[in-house]
Amino acid sequence: MPDAALAALALPGFWWLALTIAVAGVVRGFSGFGSALIFVPVAGIFLPPVHVIAIIALVEVASIAALVPRAWGQADRRQVGLLVLAALPTIPLGLIVMDALDATLVRWVVAGFAGGTLAALVLGWRFSASVGVGITLAIGAAAGFMGGMTGLTGPVVVLFYLAARQSARTVRANTILFLGALDLAIVVNLGLRGFDDFSILWLGAILAVPYFIAMMVGQALFHPEHERLYRRAALGVIALSVLVGLPVWT
């Protein structure tokens, strides 16, 4: 086994990261979102922000093969395309801001953003503005920026879609396509920035295995008639992850 792979396995907290990513995979499989909200706060305990962003983006790329084929035919691809178009230029801006911030401050931003998203979901907040091209582009831009700064690619667009007057199946499919495209874009941006920590690249590849398997399990569990149960389970897991990842503990 390459030395970089052995170094990845020896990283502090490896088994916690593996367990967390597996749980995140199940939630992503049945809900279409939530993996970053679960993984990023916990991973921040053990790794610096740029490593967390790299790993969650690399691992999420594994979702493309598992989830996109089914989602492709169910999604509103025009709307997803607009979101992706707006997100592309803001991802590098988010990465620049992440570089400029202290790691602990980034963890607080993650905790605040994830906690705020959770509160909005629990309270049933709904996006009430008329959804035109301008609003769609603004949502995509905000999602790209937050993804680059924190690795949390999903919350902005998830809140947007949960407020939409679309079926659960379409919302789930749109979210899957958008997050997959955003994760690919983040990986490309990190590559252009010269990211070459091979132990982290190996860690992303290793964690992609339990994530992929767990995601397939979650997808098999998905049935539209149980949407409320899935939602409650996802919110509970996200809440636990946010609490565990608060910088006050470490």
Automatic annotation (TrEMBL):
Subcellular location: Cell membrane
Transmembrane segments: 6-27, 39-68, 80-98, 105-125, 131-164, 176-195, 201-222, 229-249
Entry membrane topology: Multi-pass membrane protein
The keyword Transmembrane is assigned to this record: yes
Keyword entries, A-Z: Cell membrane, Membrane, Transmembrane, Transmembrane helix, Transport
Main location: membrane
GO CC terms in record: plasma membrane
PANTHER family: MEMBRANE TRANSPORTER PROTEIN, TRANSMEMBRANE PROTEIN YFCA
Recorded family membership: Belongs to the 4-toluene sulfonate uptake permease (TSUP) (TC 2.A.102) family.
Protein name: Probable membrane transporter protein
The species this protein was found in: Pelagivirga sediminicola
